[in-house]
Amino acid sequence: MSLSLSCCTHAILLALEKQEDKMVKRRVMFTFPAELIKEPIIYNLGQQFRVVTNIRRADVSEGKGWVVLELEGEEKDIERGIDWVTARGVKVDPVIGDIVEG
Amino acid sequence: MSYATALRCRKCGREYPLEPLNLCDFCFSPLEVSYDYKSVAKAVSREKIAAGPLCMWRYEDLLPVDGDVVDIGTGFTPLVKANRLGRELGLGELYIKNDCLNPTYSFKDRVVSVAITKAREFGFDTVACASTGNLAASVAAHAAKANIKSYVFIPADVEPGKLTGIAIYNPVLVTVEGSYDDVNRLCSQLVQRHNWGFININLRPYYAEGSKTLGYEVAEQLGWHAPDCVVAPSASGLLFTRIWKGLEELAMLGLIEPVNTHMYLTQAAGCSPIVNAFQAGSLHVHPVKPDTIAKSIAIGNPADGYYALRVARQSGGGACAVTDEELIEGMKLLAQTEGIFAEAAGGVVIAGLRKLVASGVIKRNELTVAFITGAGLKTQEAVAEVVHPLTIQPTIESFEEAFDK
After folding, report:
1. What are phi and psi of B88, to 5 degrees?
2. Which CATH architecture has domain B79-105+211-386?
3. How many CB atoms lie within 10 A of CB A13?
């Protein structure tokens, strides 16, 4: 059996289950470039997108930094929040690393 | 009977029961299977292992499974003395661990055999994975053997030739039209929504243990000795760390002398986040965007990158990246000296080994094992330019005319 999916991830997931209002948790790693170290990105993410942020591990210096954290909120808010953080210049990766293997 | 006792966080040491779980709830670091080594030491011996089946399951006492295993005949692959390649590179004692010769033609059969066995133990009726080829084929094959349903998610731009080697086992084959990052993102969300055994996510701690058998086999095949140097490819970093763990466990159990092996990891320059961190002296592996023909090891955000980095450093080894041109030369060199047609990742290993020897990092008299983890027939397009036959008519004259040219 073969299927082909068009990967607008959000759309696929909505098609699979109408759960856009469900509270979900997402574990992610933010990697900050030097120019963003001084900006309160995580605070603003929580304030602007109704996402609860919970830092678990981090290493931040004056040059660059990374933070491993959990995001909790409605799925659409988390998606919008991650899009905003990414647009600010932060690299957002799944904390479990890449899933696609060879 | 399994001697596994718990899942343990590699960072903070917290312990969890042996369940389908891959991350520590506190620090989100990977979990690893821990064992009752005192009991293992009483149960295993060189003689018992040598009398076991000629496959990876001869080491069952060192793997985290209970009861019947899902085995399609994986492991105990040849360790070949590579005299011609050794002479070419300047090494006196070079061996190739040829893991192309597994049932689905890559080392993934080792990890998947353990993962699917655990999936069945945990009662999953469906397993899933996301892959660009090798993992998908292995999951589909083992799921067929175990009579479990499987979903394999594949980026739509994967070479069509690879799909046949997956579809033949009749999984639900899903091609996803999106970028590599899109597929990652989709799968990380699917795992939260479906009660599946996701091979390299919630089954990852068990999956990882299968790679230890590469370390066990090499030591046993060398007459119960660890090599001086190991050169292996690195994608997520898992294979590299588990070869080391396998050797360390054998030493801990008294089956070999204390290990003094230098571990060298190799990556393609177009996707070398672990090598970058090693060379920068950094403790953190910064994710990169993959851009290499060595797709089977093109993981930009390696889950076990930090731990692979640590093994390379602690063992007095190193890390080396090679260009796509260099890896193609590596594939040709291996094929044309030792008769082994490896996939692009194997080219990375041979080209990396060549650099490490040429720069004097690996010495001529060091017994070195290079790990070839997948077969070349899956990535033939990488070396398609080698095909230039003499075309003749079916006559002796035509042959002799062509031959004289």
Report:
1. -60, -40
2. 3-Layer(aba) Sandwich (3.40)
3. 20
pLDDT at position B404: 79
Domains and CATH numbers, chain A: 20-94 (3.30.70.260)
B193 and A91 within 8 Å at the Cβ level: the answer is no
Residues sharing a CB contact under 8 Å with residue A22, sequence separation 6 or more, in sequence order: A74, A75
Query: Given the structure tokens 């069952």, which residue do they identify?
Result: B60
The candidate with the shortest Cα–Cα distance to B135, out of B263, B306, B299, is: B299
- Which position has the token pair 């979903």? B151
Query: For the domain bounded by B108-206, which CATH number is listed?
Result: 3.40.50.1100
Q: For residue B161, what pLDDT band results from cuts at 50, 70 and 90?
A: confident
Q: Is A92 left (phi over 0), alpha (psi -120 to 50) or beta?
A: beta
Q: Do B167 and A2 touch (CB under 8 A)?
A: yes
ipTM given for this complex: 0.84
- Cβ <8 Å between B131 and A4: no
Confidence (pTM):
0.92
Q: What is the pLDDT of residues B328-365, one digit of tens each?
A: 999 999 999 999 999 999 999 999 999 999 999 999 99
In A, residues 18-47, which contact B (CB 8 Å cutoff)? 19, 24, 27, 31
